[in-house]
Amino acid sequence: MKAKLFMIPKAQVFTMRDNQPLKEGAILLTEKHIGSIVIVNQNKEAIGIVTKTDLINALYIKHMNPLSTTVKEIMSSNLIYVNENDERDRVASDMNDKKVHHVLVKRSEENKKEEGEEHSNWVGLITSFDITKEAALDAKAYPYEGLRSKQAALKYKAMNSKGFSSVY
Predict the structure, then answer these.
(1) Rounded distance, CA 47 to CA 53, Å?
(2) Given the DSSP bridges, would you call strands 15-17 and 124-127 parallel, antiparallel or unpaired?
(3) Taking the model in full, what pTM does it have?
C-alpha cells in the first residue's frame, strides 16, 4: 500500500512553532497521547521534530528547564522524508535502516504541480505504529501472503475449509 493511503495527513499532525517552550511540548505530547510533534517555521514548513525520547533526554538526562528551553533547542533537525507513492515495505525498510520511528511524507513531483503545493515541504507523517497497524490490516485481508511457503499456505487453506479456526 502506498504511503499516502495510511499516513497521518498534515492537517491532523500536531505541530508547534520553534520558539515555543518545552513545557508546552511536554503537555501536548502527554495530553494528546502522541509520540512526536513536528516543529514548523512561520510558513508551516517542517524544520524539526520532537519525540518523547527527546523530551525525556532533555528533562531527565540533561536537566533542562522546561520553561526557559524552547522546542528548537531539543528538536531533531535532520528530518527523514519518504515519498507519498512509496510502498509500505519500503517506508518500513527506510525507517529501520535509519533507526527512526517517525518520517515525514513529501508530495510526489507530479502531484505537487497539479495541486499547486510547490512551497510545502511535507504533506503527512508516518510512525512505526502506522506501519504496524497497516501491516496487521493487510495480513487480515490477505492471510495467505504471510505464510512462508506454498505448502504451508495450502495446509492452512485446507484446515480452514474443514472448519478449523484461523491461526491469525
Answers:
(1) 18
(2) unpaired
(3) 0.77
Q: For residue 64, give the C-alpha cell.
A: 533542562
What are the start-end ranges of the H helices in the chain?
22-31, 52-56, 71-74, 88-98, 109-115, 128-141, 150-161
**Residue pLDDT, tens place only, 105-141:** 998 876 665 555 555 689 999 999 999 998 888 777 6
CA–CA dist 97, 77 (Å, integer): 18
Q: CA separation (Å) from 55 to 77, 90, 103, 120?
A: 15, 28, 18, 27
Radius of gyration of the chain (CA): 20
Distance CA 124, CA 3 (A): 9
Q: CB neighbours (10 Å) of residue 37? A: 27
- pLDDT-based confidence at residue 154 (cuts at 50, 70, 90): low
Enumerate residues 6+ apart whose C-beta is below 8 A from 29: 35, 36, 37, 50, 52, 55
Strands (E), the chain: 8-9, 15-17, 36-40, 46-51, 81-83, 102-106, 124-127
167: pLDDT strictly greater than 50 = no
Closest CA to 57 of 77, 39, 73, 38: 73
